[in-house]
Design goal:
binds zinc ion, hydrolase, Aminopeptidase, alpha+beta, 40 strands, 32% helix, 907 residues, 18% strand, ten-stranded mixed β-sheet, 29 helices, 4 domains, Alpha-Beta Plaits
Length: 907
């Protein structure tokens, strides 16, 4: 830890002029670019990618496995003095995650100096004085990060990377020299190496089949699939964490370029600028830098007679969370291109009549200012994609080389602007107050921000602000810091503009509309309306340490209480169950012990319980309280019911579901074990013998029922649950099992179980109701806490926020209960008014007061319907407990349901 006050202010102001000076020089055409040292390259004997692969990169029908890519990249690193290859770490499935650093020899020999330059330009508080600022802007080189195949079915860019690497390592032409002497390239040949193998191996199996290049039955990342590019503010995935560390702590690039592919029938390539709307937190110099590079890409493509280039369409400049968009909020010029795809590596032929527009600035495939040279149709091959991508990569690098000082000076200006704005206008920062009953949750949120480069201060003592006293341990996130755009974008509520089409329907955003982190995570925070007071006892965290859990009075304890609020407590329940320790849930609050509230858990302080709880509490920041004395036993014995995690089966369709993957990740990271169930496992029946709870992730009813069609994939993966699977699931519930349905799978359950409810939103046009990826207010209905299902609400406040991603809402049928006596009750409703917290909502009246979470009794069992995704992308920590609670049993499955009723209070 270093003291924050003082150091912070010393440098901030006096270096402000430099960036403008540099910009002026650049605009006046004054060339101050110094030629680097003569580059020998040292690339003797360096094999070309073609020689390594045995075919030209991008050849028809050829995909490469990661071991070959990694071997090649490492060989280049060993043989070329222009290239240094670094393994950032291991991937989710233990493959090397590589970056090749490319520049001229002199630069490669002194990379630490380049890193220091970037760190100082991104944070002028680290500069000694103005002279140093001027010198670094003059001397430094733009650092350009290029990331490939984060989406593994978009196969071309790993080949593009191999070829670009070879060109730069061996080329001696003026254009290559210009790039080497004036830029530093960080080339990531794949941002998802595991997926390179998953895709290549599947592709081989499909060759010559009707589904060649299609029909993949698994996600191409173990947990995230396509959502690898939705994790960049949350850092749930190992790959994101590795690159994020490099981005914001080690290299701090100037420009980032993430290479993608899109559908086949539109433009041949999209290059920036992006489409509306514009996120208000992105610095204008980032946006204009995007224009500049995009224009240079389009210009370069036109110069090489490449047709079908689309600009200013489809991909918005609003969304946060992707590999290009989080860097944009770190003052980096974040670029994306999207090329038309082939079928993995199999070429396609498109007639002119098959070529289409889409939406959002690209209504048809006709000539337009942003589509100046439509492609006429014909064959489209993987090699075409590689060619287009190589031109774009080189265009980015050569532009960065030519505008070197301008880009570097801009970095300084943007960080200076962020610091000054945060110092001079509200919000001056945010206060994050840990919940004393669950301090680990606030720490978890603050850690994510810290790990994306945000300065975090923590109170070493209590302090007073606006008449409120904040305790020791309170976090303060000052707005006056270089990456203020990211901090502000994470902490404030998003207000997505009402963008309607001419027919009144909603124009969908590119991805989601809102992502306010404290609302996603259920953490209390407030903006600072006054400047930070230097007298506050705040210290900047230089290394983030999670709060140690508390294990109080375990030595003398008779019983141990696990209070009700903690998200991570589920790991303790799982471990206690595993160790055979009996856990009971309090159904009545104890008057004497505030920790023994309704929903808290109690165990006897036997040695097996201690052995589980002590290390777990420490690791996960849990607060566990030992209770001694005469009354202790009654905390366990009276006013409690048994509690344990059920034996969980998680449905996994062969049509891969990202939600299923995220569900696995959330369960595994919280210590909850489960068994994966494929269609055949469910169709095999006898489910009650093996499972207490079966979870259907958010998958459409059609996919659950029908799965892949004939000739869409290998026959082994064709079909879904069908009638047979549905019958077995009904029997499972009838005989006492619990079916937990997440979001879209509720439609399957409603069709299968015919409960006395209706889904009220899905039939509405988007002119009547629309809520794309937004955060909504919910409320616990008056009687829900007295329901036998009240345990579902444990650890939840009465007014939680929930994520809504074109999700569902339920209403009871007017006639109420159904003839078979099956009852439905709402455990959580959408708020009656002011539903929208962050994002976009049209037609509030359609959802206000409707049910968001329902429990249905069916036979001896039950169906739990989550209208919203409680574990969305592993980001909605605030509603994780709702999901975990739905996996818990408060009765012995062999006993009659009557025992599920909480015992009458005997206080
Ligand atoms: Zn993509």
């Amino acid at each position: 830890m270093t003291t924050w006050v003082g150091r912070w202010r010393a440098v901030g102001r006096d270096v402000r002029v430099v960036g403008l000076m540099v910009l002026a020089l650049a605009l006046a055409g004054v060339s101050t670019i110094a030629r680097g040292q003569e580059v020998a390259g040292g690339s003797a004997g360096l094999m070309s990618p073609e020689a390594k692969l045995g075919y030209r990169p991008g050849a028809d029908g050829k995909l490469v496995e990661w071991s070959t890519v990694a071997e090649y990249v490492r060989e280049v690193g060993e043989r070329s003095r222009r290239v240094e290859v670094v393994e950032l770490g291991r991937t989710t499935e233990d493959r090397p995650y590589l970056v090749a650093i490319v520049s001229n020899e002199a630069t490669i020999a002194n990379l630490d100096r380049a890193k220091e330059h970037q760190a100082k330009l991104h944070d002028p508080r680290k500069l000694a004085d103005q002279d140093e600022a001027v010198r670094i802007v003059k001397e430094s080189k733009p650092v350009v990060l290029i990331t490939c195949t984060i989406h593994s079915s978009e196969t071309a860019s790993t080949f593009t990377a191999m070829e670009l690497l070879h060109e730069l390592a061996t080329g001696d032409d003026p254009a290559t020299r210009e790039i080497l002497d004036n830029t530093i390239l960080l080339l990531v040949p794949s941002a998802n190496p595991d997926g390179v193998d998953i895709t290549a191996r599947w592709y081989e199996k499909t060759k010559g089949k009707p589904w060649e290049g299609d029909g993949m039955p698994v996600l191409y990342h173990k947990y995230a699939g396509h959502d690898t590019n939705r994790d960049w503010f949350m850092l749930n995935l190992q790959e994101t964490r590795l690159l994020t560390r490099m981005l914001y702590f080690e290299w701090l690039p100037t420009i980032t370029y993430d290479i993608h592919q899109m559908g086949s029938t539109g433009a041949r390539i999209f290059v920036p600028p992006f489409y509306e709307p514009q996120n208000p937190n992105i610095h204008p110099r980032v946006t204009q830098g995007i224009f500049l590079i995009g224009a240079h890409m389009a210009w370069s493509l036109a110069s090489e007679r490449k047709q079908g280039v689309l600009t200013n369409a489809m991909y918005d400049n609003w969304w946060n969370g992707g590999c290009r968009t989080v860097p944009q909020r770190h003052n980096m010029v974040g670029i994306l291109t999207e090329s038309a795809s082939v079928k993995l590596a199999t070429p396609i032929f498109l007639e002119k009549s098959q070529l289409k527009g889409a939406t959002r600035g690209f209504p048809n495939h006709d000539l337009a200012v942003n589509f100046a040279d439509p492609w006429p149709g014909g064959w489209w091959r993987l090699r075409d994609i590689v060619d287009y991508q190589l031109i774009c990569a080189r265009a980015t690098l050569s532009l960065a080389a030519r505008y070197r000082e301008c880009f570097q000076g801009n970095l300084l200006e943007m960080s200076r602007d962020a610091i000054a704005t945060g110092e001079n206008e509200p919000p001056y920062g945010w206060v994050v107050t840990p919940d004393p009953a669950d301090p680990a949750r606030a720490a978890r949120m603050v850690r994510i921000l810290h790990d994306t480069g945000i300065d975090v201060l923590q109170a070493e003592d209590e302090f007073t602000l606006g008449g409120h006293t904040y305790s020791k341990g309170t976090y303060v996130l000052p707005a006056s810091q270089p990456f203020r755009p990211h901090l502000k974008d994470m902490m404030e509520r998003q207000v997505y503009p009402n963008r309607l089409r001419s027919d009144g329907t909603a124009e969908p955003p590119y991805d989601v509309a809102g992502w306010t982190l404290p609302l996603l995570m259920g953490v209390a925070s407030a903006p600072l309306s006054e400047p930070l007071d230097p007298s506050w006892p705040l210290t900047k965290l230089t290394k983030f340490e999670a709060p140690q859990g508390r294990v109080e009075g375990l030595e003398t304890a008779k019983v141990v209480l696990i209070p009700a609020r903690e998200v991570e407590a589920v790991a303790a329940l799982a471990a206690l169950n595993q160790a055979g320790v009996e856990v009971r849930r309090r159904v009545v609050a104890s008057a004497d012990r505030p920790e023994a509230s309704v929903g808290s858990w109690v165990v006897r302080a036997v040695s097996s319980a201690r052995e589980v709880l002590e290390p777990l509490a420490r690791e996960r920041g849990l607060r566990v309280v030992g209770v001694a004395g005469d009354q202790a036993d009654s905390l366990f014995e009276r006013d409690t019911q048994p509690l344990r995690l059920g034996r969980i089966g998680l449905y996994k369709p062969w049509k891969p579901s990202m939600d299923e993957g995220w569900t696995r990740l959330v369960l595994e990271t919280h210590g909850v074990s489960y068994t994966t169930l494929h269609d055949a496992d469910i169709k095999g029946g006898n489910l009650n013998e093996r499972f207490d709870v079966i979870v259907l992730p958010s998958v459409s009813a059609a996919t659950i029922r029908d799965g892949w069609g004939l000739n869409e994939t290998d026959p082994a993966y064709v079909g879904g649950l069908g009638r047979e699977g549905q019958t077995h699931l009904r029997r499972f519930v009838n005989e006492g099992g619990r079916l937990v349905c997440l979001e879209n799978s509720c439609e399957f359950a409603i069709a299968a179980f015919k409960p006395p409810i209706v889904e009220v939103l899905r039939s509405l046009k988007s002119s009547e109701f629309y809520g794309p990826g937004s955060i909504f207010r919910a409320q616990v209905p008056a009687k829900a806490r007295e329901s036998p299902f009240a345990f579902l609400l444990d650890a939840m406040p009465d007014d939680p926020t929930v994520y809504f991603s074109r999700s569902l809402a339920f209403a009871l049928r007017p006639e109420g209960g159904d003839p078979r006596g099956n009852a439905a009750e709402s455990l959580l409703d959408y708020a009656l008014r002011d539903v929208l917290e962050s994002g976009w909502l049209l037609g509030e009246e359609k959802i206000a007061g409707r049910s968001a979470l329902m429990a249905l009794r069916h036979g001896k069992g039950e169906v739990i319907l989550f209208g919203f995704p409680p574990q969305f992308r592993g980001q909605t920590v605030g509603t994780f407990r709702l999901f975990f609670n739905a996996l818990m049993l408060t009765r012995d499955q062999n006993q009659d349901r009557q025992t599920a009723k909480p015992p009458v209070s005997r206080s």
